[in-house]
């Protein structure tokens, strides 16, 4: 079951350039940084009231985030992530309702979570991620 907004994913050209805005202007605390090789991104997480902001910087020109930045050079909101306690069941439910899946099954994400994306063509233009904490103690700071 989906229970809450887990995080908003925001594409940035440079995490190092973006962090001072989130820390100094917004006053949020960076909870951790992590590279996610499967998605070819570096991430940094901030907490605001139990919801996270996930900054995403591409580590390769063929990263999905690099492609997003080609279309949106200033950066911007990339995806909406919803927390689930049963990723496979929620994916199946979406597929059963005709939603196109980017990931047929979960794959490793940042913060010791298993994630899967729904296709924005099926979700009114919002790239949507389901994410589930791994059983071995999912933590938003990635164990740092
Ligand atoms: Zn995400």
Structure description:
It is built from 3 helices and 8 strands; from the N terminus they run E-H-E-E-E-H-E-H-E-E-E. The two termini are 28 Å apart. The protein has a single domain, classed as 2,3-Dihydroxybiphenyl 1,2-Dioxygenase, domain 1 (Roll). It has an 8-stranded mixed sheet. The chain has helices at residues 15-25, 64-71, 87-96, and strands spanning 2-11, 30-36, 41-48, 51-58, 76-84, 107-109, 113-118, 128-133. It binds zinc ion (ZN). Zinc ion (ZN) binds next to strand 1 and strand 5. Zinc ion (ZN) is lined by residues 7, 9, 54, 79, 81, 129.
Return the CATH class.
Alpha Beta
How many distinct helices?
Answer: 3
Compute the number of structural domains. Answer: 1
Largest sheet: 8 strands, mixed
- Proportion of residues in helical segments: 10-25%
Summarize the SSE layout with pairings.
Layout: E1 2-11, H1 15-25, E2 30-36, E3 41-48, E4 51-58, H2 64-71, E5 76-84, H3 87-96, E6 107-109, E7 113-118, E8 128-133
Parallel strand pairs: 1-4, 5-8
Antiparallel strand pairs: 1-5, 2-3, 3-4, 6-7, 7-8
Zinc ion (ZN) binds at residues 7, 9, 54, 79, 81, 129.
